[in-house]
Task: inverse folding
């Protein structure tokens, strides 16, 4: 009798394991699909242009991914909650200006300047979070307003002129272009992006904050009724997202060894595109960091490859638009299938 | 120790312009299932929200185990042992079962990190204890409605609740699932716990409750012992007037024209060889368990789902219906079971909703004639006795019954001769149900033909001239009203596929 029960239980466990495997495989399929498209693009451009598959060019691609990639990481959190953050582009610019300002005007030592830059991003994020969670302003509106405020402040604080950080010894080398690993042509900024991605991934999948990010995006009201302080966590999530914006600003400054106060507008849309290509749903509740990283890489591989093929920039934009539609449509088809 | 697990008295609650509860009282004994009934708008939801700490009462006394308590917020209510299962599920579709149950209380490592393994083990332990079959790792969005209901219940029980409040827990369950739910409730109740059970389904109250408390218009009416009371008495208490009971429709003359003839209807996913005829002035009921394919028949008929084979004839002419717009133009109107999402524009006013399907009638060169729309809306508000201050009232502010009437009006304006009602009285209270029934009968008497899909057998029996029963995508039989009863309908509804193929041709001939 007990034996029968035990075998039954054992087989139940086995079948549970099986179904778990199936779910995992299904879940990783999206990543697989995105990853496969990335590989396909790389193969295509390697064939189409002999200059593409060169260490120097690949390193360039990675370097050009860093800023949008960092922005996309932060905004992945916001999008999973069902919100949107339009302020990350000009927010990044403002953080860049602030970093340079802290270092040159206030004479912050490098590390302190970097931390202050990141913290300033977190501050922008927390203000966004306050508008969205406490004042209940729709995230689209709140962050649209912040986008304009940040763009203006960057110009005001910099006096509309670039702020150069040449005097800050080692800043560009350590936080952007230096190559710390001998024999590899990959600059430090790329390692910073990957480190940030790993941290973001861990936060999203392994921490309470990550769990509530999904939960709020899935059903905010239910989360609140379950005794979770949704207001507090939403502010924290936007703050976290903002700190990635801050980091992006720091790296952008280091790379150019200057803060350029006029740019940034439009970067938010590229970051959002990367997130969406990576399979994160704008409805909230679904998404992953690895998807976002792949999405960001797809965007820069595409731009780089098309440039090497001498495709004019206006056509590159068309291509990116087509890719976004394709990626989202394929993802929808896949979801429909798995739902059945 | 007190005789009452929970007791409230003299509870008042007002909202701007409305007195929601007035001198409300209620008591729940130990080891008891107390049914709470009342028409929509009677104040049940307000009462529940007070108990679960979402609202604060204007005045009144709450006691648990004889000790006075003040419920301060949802978290405090949970700490007091009060758990509520809302009518609309409060689940996160994208999270797993275990994640849903322990949201806000997840086992943590170092205060910040999650332990998925401990979480799943905890959930499995809970399921074993309360004896329900759920996979902690399954994504909630992938579960059936019944399983999701189980998740809600498991979640409520995980709070070590002593007072469980269930708001229409069976609204979306079939009979077998209802039985499982009742089993769970019986397992839950003991000398330390009790359940408040809200339901519109009278037959259920008999099965599960010890006593029934009736409220009406925010006031306490009476509490009766279930065993000593007939359901007719309870209904009379609820509505405060007599409701005519069990009259059944006369058989419709089969000499009447066949307005709709469906032959061999199949869809890729579910339907197999569905054939039936609908006569002029007939109400054809569709019965069957959840998932039997009744809604799918309706959707296939109006072109919302693609037909893989089969023919549809309207008044003798074969038709191809590619989408619901074509169906509407052919005079075939479908009233969805999901009024709120698929039937109405809740934010728009009554007039706009009524005119929506017939905008062509109310426009010249694309410009809308608001005055004509208003006149028509007013006419139907009158005709169908829709309770609304004016045609400019937003649909969301009306009760379920009146919203349903708007949806009906929409198709009447469009001059549809065939109306398909999917669960026409879901979420509608007893009094309003009667009005919808009367309306359906009137429509049939005026020569409209009606297909009525319903999960409530008494409703099917009460209204249908003929009843088609479905099981697993097939029609398993037809019953005339005279011969139909709950037993033979359920027999057909649970008939498995092999039996069905044997008996279907015979019964379909009728």
Result:
């Amino acid at each position: 009798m007990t034996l029968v029960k035990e075998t039954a239980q054992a087989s139940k466990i086995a079948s549970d394991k099986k179904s778990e495997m199936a779910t995992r495989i299904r879940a990783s399929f999206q990543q697989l699909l995105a990853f496969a498209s990335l590989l396909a693009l790389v193969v295509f451009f390697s064939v189409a242009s002999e200059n593409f598959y060169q260490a120097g060019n690949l390193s360039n691609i990675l370097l050009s991914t860093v800023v949008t990639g960092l922005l996309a990481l932060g905004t992945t959190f916001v999008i999973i909650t069902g919100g949107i953050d339009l302020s990350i582009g000009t927010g990044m610019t403002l953080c860049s200006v602030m970093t340079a300002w802290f270092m040159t005007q206030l004479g912050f030592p490098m590390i302190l300047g970097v931390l202050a830059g990141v913290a300033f991003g977190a501050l922008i994020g927390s203000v966004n979070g306050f508008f969205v969670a406490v004042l209940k302003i729709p995230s689209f509106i709140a962050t649209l307003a912040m986008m304009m405020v940040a763009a203006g402040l960057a110009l005001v604080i910099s006096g509309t002129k670039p702020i150069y950080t040449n005097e800050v010894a080692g800043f560009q080398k350590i936080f952007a272009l230096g190559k710390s690993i001998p024999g590899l042509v990959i600059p430090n900024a790329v390692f910073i992006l990957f480190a940030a991605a790993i941290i973001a991934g861990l936060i999203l999948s392994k921490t309470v904050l990550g769990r509530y990010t999904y939960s709020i995006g899935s059903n905010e009201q239910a989360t609140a009724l379950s005794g979770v302080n949704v207001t507090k966590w939403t502010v924290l999530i936007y703050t976290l997202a903002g700190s990635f914006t801050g980091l992006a600003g720091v790296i952008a400054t280091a790379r150019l060894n200057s803060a350029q106060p006029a740019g940034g507008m439009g970067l938010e849309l590229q970051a959002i595109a990367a997130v969406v290509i990576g399979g994160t749903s704008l409805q909230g509740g679904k998404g992953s960091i690895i998807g976002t990283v792949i999405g960001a890489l797809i965007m820069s591989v595409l731009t780089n490859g098309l440039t090497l093929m001498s495709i004019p920039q206006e056509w590159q934009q068309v291509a990116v638009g087509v890719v976004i539609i394709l990626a989202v449509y394929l993802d929808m088809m896949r979801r429909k299938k798995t739902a059945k | 120790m007190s005789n009452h697990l929970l007791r409230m008295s003299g509870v008042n609650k007002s909202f701007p312009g409305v007195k929601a509860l007035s001198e409300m009282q209620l008591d729940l004994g130990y080891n008891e299932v107390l049914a709470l009934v009342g028409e929509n708008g009677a104040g049940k939801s307000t009462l529940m929200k007070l108990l679960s700490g979402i609202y604060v009462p204007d005045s009144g006394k709450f006691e648990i185990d004889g000790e006075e308590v003040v419920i301060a917020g949802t978290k405090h209510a949970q700490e007091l042992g009060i758990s509520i299962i809302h009518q609309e599920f409060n689940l996160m579709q994208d999270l797993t079962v275990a994640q849903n149950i322990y949201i806000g209380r997840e086992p943590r490592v170092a205060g910040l990190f999650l332990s998925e393994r401990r979480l799943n083990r905890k959930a499995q332990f809970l399921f074993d204890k309360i004896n329900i079959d759920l996979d902690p790792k399954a994504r909630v969005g992938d579960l059936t409605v019944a399983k999701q209901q189980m998740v809600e219940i498991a979640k409520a029980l995980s709070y070590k609740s002593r007072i469980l409040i269930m708001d229409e827990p069976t609204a979306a369950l079939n009979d077998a699932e209802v039985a499982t739910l009742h089993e769970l409730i019986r397992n839950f109740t003991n000398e330390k716990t009790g359940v408040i059970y809200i339901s519109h389904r009278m037959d259920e109250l008999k099965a599960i409750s010890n006593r029934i408390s009736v409220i009406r218009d925010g006031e306490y009416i009476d509490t009766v012992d279930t065993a000593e009371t007939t359901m007719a008495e309870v209904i009379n208490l609820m509505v405060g007037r007599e409701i005519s009971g069990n009259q059944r429709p006369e058989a419709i003359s089969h000499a009447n024209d066949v307005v709709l003839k469906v032959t061999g209807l199949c869809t890729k996913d579910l339907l197999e060889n569905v054939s039936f005829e609908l006569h002029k002035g007939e109400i054809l009921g569709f019965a069957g368990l959840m998932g039997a394919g009744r809604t799918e028949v309706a959707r296939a008929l109006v072109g919302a789902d693609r037909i893989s084979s089969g023919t549809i004839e309207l008044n003798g002419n074969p038709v191809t219906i590619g989408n619901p717009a074509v169906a509407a133009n052919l005079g075939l109107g479908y009233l969805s079971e999901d009024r709120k999402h698929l039937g109405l524009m809740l934010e728009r006013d009554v007039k706009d909703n009524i005119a929506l399907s017939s905008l062509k009638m109310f426009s010249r060169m694309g410009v809308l004639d608001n005055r004509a729309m208003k006149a028509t809306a007013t006419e139907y508000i009158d005709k169908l006795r829709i309770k609304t201050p004016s045609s400019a009232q937003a649909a969301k502010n009306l009760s379920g019954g009146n919203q349903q009437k708007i949806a009906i009006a929409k198709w009447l304006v469009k001059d549809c001769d065939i109306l398909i009602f999917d669960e026409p009285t879901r979420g509608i209270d007893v009094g309003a149900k009667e009005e919808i029934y009367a309306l359906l009968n009137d429509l049939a008497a005026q020569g409209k033909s009606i297909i009525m899909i319903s999960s409530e057998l008494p409703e099917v029996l009460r209204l249908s001239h003929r009843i088609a029963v479905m099981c697993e995508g097939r029609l398993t039989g037809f019953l005339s009203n005279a011969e139909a009863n709950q037993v033979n309908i359920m027999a057909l509804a649970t008939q498995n596929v092999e039996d069905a193929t044997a008996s279907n041709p015979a019964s379909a001939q009728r």
